[in-house]
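Below is one record:
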Amino acid sequence: MENPSSENTKSPSQLIDERIQELGDWRGEVLAQIRNLIKQADPQVTEEWKWRGTPVWSHNGMVCTGETYKNAVKVTFAKGASLQDPAHLFNASLDGNARRAIDFHEGDKVDEPAFQELFRAGVDLNSSGGSGRKTTKQ
């Protein structure tokens, strides 16, 4: 059994790599795809590991998290309620005042351009402190 303190010696990126490998199924594939899209959309993104096992992507503050559940990969945007979503990606956590989420289920296709635009809008919102970037569907 791995020593719990070993988490403290690994980088967040290493811990995310391990999570993807541990999953070993469609959830790991989706999480890896989301992670790659985020890194392409914002090469300066910071990866973090919070709350005992949640991947977090930040740029001037938290942009989104990537949680994995038995039947879904949930990408929660911290300020999603302030983002325009013309592609209607948000399909979960729609009632809150701040967060919005996208639940991906087995077999779902990721709208890559729309996801990257939404992520960049989250970065822009964090950077500007404003009310959000108008996103456009490509």
